[in-house]
């Protein structure tokens, strides 16, 4: 088992996100991540580096205070541990380019500011509009996700909500006419999700296993899946909305494609 150490003077979410994105690029089933947050002393830094050295792991760290970053650098050199400074180079680039000085206060990302409350509001809105619960609320959504069952609408909605977007999602079923409001919305607000039929069949089959339903249920047959996907694609063409194939995409990647068109 290989170990990556995430070390931070805050909660370590920034470094952990980078580490998790990196792991996905490898066949890394034998990798574990150990997180050390709220680092405040040089002794704590030294302890993390010593543990990483013993197991031949490496460290990804976000340390704002220069004395802790310097201790990490020195200890990593002394014990021949690979230590990657996630935040330091970015801060230095800001200093060099904009001639500004950092606040050097830990945990600023997670202080309760206006953006925080906007995210909370967005999450509450998104949960209340999940799975077509309140079609009329789509008027107030920033993003409306459309797609057949099991095309990642709900997890994608929640991820986007944590970025501060009010998201509504609506499940498409051939037997149910979509609400009229969908045709009244700006097409730029609408996102149509689709998936490779074989991939969707596999996902639905696993879902049936999880809930204890028979494998042969119509819900997971190739014929039914193709019918639903064809129905969805026809609707997307009528709406003139963006279409994203989520077959092999992580939630973060799909969200990136959606948000890229909104910057």
TrEMBL record:
E.C. no: 2.7.11.32, 2.7.4.27
Catalytic activity: N(tele)-phospho-L-histidyl/O-phospho-L-threonyl-[pyruvate, phosphate dikinase] + phosphate + H(+) = N(tele)-phospho-L-histidyl/L-threonyl-[pyruvate, phosphate dikinase] + diphosphate; N(tele)-phospho-L-histidyl/L-threonyl-[pyruvate, phosphate dikinase] + ADP = N(tele)-phospho-L-histidyl/O-phospho-L-threonyl-[pyruvate, phosphate dikinase] + AMP + H(+)
The UniProt record lists the keyword GTP-binding: no
InterPro entries (UniProt xref): Kinase-pyrophosphorylase, PPDK_reg
Keyword Zinc annotated: no
Positions of ADP binding: 147-154
Keywords associated with the record: Kinase, Nucleotide-binding, Pyruvate, Serine/threonine-protein kinase, Transferase
Highest taxon of source: Bacteria
Function: Bifunctional serine/threonine kinase and phosphorylase involved in the regulation of the pyruvate, phosphate dikinase (PPDK) by catalyzing its phosphorylation/dephosphorylation.
Entries under HAMAP family matching the protein: PDRP
Family: Belongs to the pyruvate, phosphate/water dikinase regulatory protein family. PDRP subfamily.
Protein name: Putative pyruvate, phosphate dikinase regulatory protein
Protein's organism: Paenibacillus planticolens
